[in-house]
Amino acid sequence: MDHEPRLDRDLENDGEIGRATANDSRLKRGAELLARNKPETAETTFREVIEEFPESAAAHALLAMALADQARSREAIHAADQAVLLNSHLALSHAAR
Which of 1, 10, 8, 11 is nearest to 55 (CA)? Predict the structure, then answer.
């Protein structure tokens, strides 16, 4: 079965692991940008990850936080809801709500 790789679960293919590792570092960089009060730049980073990994609950949750920091509540709620739909067991998904 062919499916999109998911950033927030173990990947079997070495190429996919390499891609996930690169995106994992982008998520960390985006989180650091949030911590440094740069939500606009963090948003761009998270959207890039989502474009490549649309099923990443972590990326959607962090995007929700970046949007909330910009007082874009409606968009933040949508991103947080998407994170919960993708992985209801990921605590970060619920924290973004």
Answer: 8
